[in-house]
Amino acid sequence: MASIPEITAKIRAFRDARDWAQFHNPKDMAIAISLESAELLEHFLWKNPEEVASRVTSHLDEITDEIADIAIYLTELADNLGIDLVQAMDAKLAKNEAKYPAEKVSGSSKKYTEYPEA
Amino acid sequence: MASIPEITAKIRAFRDARDWAQFHNPKDMAIAISLESAELLEHFLWKNPEEVASRVTSHLDEITDEIADIAIYLTELADNLGIDLVQAMDAKLAKNEAKYPAEKVSGSSKKYTEYPEA
Amino acid sequence: MASIPEITAKIRAFRDARDWAQFHNPKDMAIAISLESAELLEHFLWKNPEEVASRVTSHLDEITDEIADIAIYLTELADNLGIDLVQAMDAKLAKNEAKYPAEKVSGSSKKYTEYPEA
Amino acid sequence: MASIPEITAKIRAFRDARDWAQFHNPKDMAIAISLESAELLEHFLWKNPEEVASRVTSHLDEITDEIADIAIYLTELADNLGIDLVQAMDAKLAKNEAKYPAEKVSGSSKKYTEYPEA
Fold first, then answer.
1. For the segment C22-81, what is each residue's pLDDT rounded down to a tens digit?
2. Looking at the predicted complex, does its ipTM rise above 0.90?
3. In whole angstroms, what is the distance from residue C22 CA to residue C19 CA?
4. Number of neighbouring beta carbons within 10 Å of residue C77
5. Entry pTM
6. Distance (Å, whole) CA A69 – CA A65
């Protein structure tokens, strides 16, 4: 199991064996993605950098499952909408390159709207 | 551009050209994923099923970008933690198969804790 | 127990008896509010309008607790930042009145940026 | 303007003048609360403790509005469900007292399930 198309086919099969497509409209899929993101973030609530680093070791299995859950819903949603996920990531990275030129933003985490006009 | 390893290399290069790894600890990456999930979900606030279906057509480009943003952060986080994303999805699907046996849950959206004991 | 000042004092006392102010910086409080919001939203995942209406009856106690959790963190955060919560709500409602004039938006759920220029 | 009942009446009036109750079912209200929570959390993405402290000063007006937005939706949702918000907070604080006895948890941020059995 090594590719997005293969895992997407597995996700579709899992959903259809349970007749769950009826629930998987884009709005509920977006909610599901948000909820799984919260389960991931919950691991780090109240934690300082040292504790965060420790947590990703002590709870790596759970965190891996959380990440997988987000990825599964996201992959299915993209598939349902006819979006090529890797191509979309590639295109967005290109947009990000333009929004955040390396020579201008290096080392700064400001949002692009917070940069003074060139 | 067609594989996760290739896009992951691009994401790393983008981040390192800007010296942004210093900000990309797991806690902030999890926050970023949550925030991007909210941007996706925002498209569907107040909308009924017909309006949701219409929205994914009228705003497909924006929605594609939102999905790409989530995927980019998720891919980088998995890479930072040494997680093989597709393998993790595969393993989690197997766990889901056990939690939600097709013959038991077909057509029902209840969470596994809401099913009567077998 | 009937007022915000009284409940705020109780929240402060609860936090200080446990020496928890050290964790309650604005960033972690905002994360906590997001996580509790997700717990509330989880009740409605996959559910259609009839099922949503049924859920708020069958699970009213849990939903009440979820709402209380959000309110508790929000009240403490406002207090920590020296914000008068009710006054802030009042001011924001006034801003909303200007952004969404009743005669212009009645019956429509579009965001103000989606309205044609007057 | 100093009480929850007064601000609740204002919120109801604002909603009804625009005929918006039709959109304010519990599911969409919960989504709205999540989205506003994300807008609040966005202020602190990538920021270390010093930058967080600086942000709540430099952007206090925006952050106050974000907090007000969450509070407004939460207040209306509680009202719609017949929940007395302050009473619910009081009851939940009492439950929290039992879950996290001060003598046991003082100075520790662990979740109650992470404490060893007494």
1. 999 999 999 999 999 999 999 999 999 999 999 999 999 999 999 999 999 999 999 999
2. yes
3. 7
4. 24
5. 0.95
6. 6
Across the interface, which of A23, A38, A46 has its CB nearest the CB of C34? A38
In this predicted model, what pLDDT tens digit does every residue of B23-78 receive, in sequence order?
A: 999 999 999 999 999 999 999 999 999 999 999 999 999 999 999 999 999 999 99
Chain A residue numbers with beta carbons less than 8 Å from the beta carbon of B40 are 30, 33-34
pLDDT tens digits, A42-84: 999 999 999 999 999 999 999 999 999 999 999 999 999 999 9
3-state secondary structure chain C: CCCHHHHHHHHHHHHHHCCCHHHCCHHHHHHHHHHHHHHHHHCCCCCCHHHHHHHHHHCHHHHHHHHHHHHHHHHHHHHHCCCCHHHHHHHHHHHHHHHCCHHHHCCCCCCHHHCCCC
Helix (H, G, I), strand (E, B) or coil at D77: helix
Interface test with A, best of B60, B69, B89 (most A CBs within 10 A): B89
Q: d(Cα D81, Cα D65) in Å, to the nearest integer? A: 24
The one-character DSSP state at B2 is -
Report chain D residues touching chain B, CB-CB < 8 A.
Answer: 23, 28, 31-32, 34-35, 37-39, 41-42, 44-46
Cα distance between residue D59 and residue C40, in whole Å = 28
Q: Indicate the residue type of B18.
A: R
Q: What is the DSSP string of A21-84?
A: GGG--HHHHHHHHHHHHHHHHHTTTT--HHHHHHHHHHTHHHHHHHHHHHHHHHHHHHHHTT--
Q: What is the pLDDT of residue B75?
A: 98
CA distances from A46 to A50, A51, A57, B38, C27 (A): 12, 9, 17, 21, 9
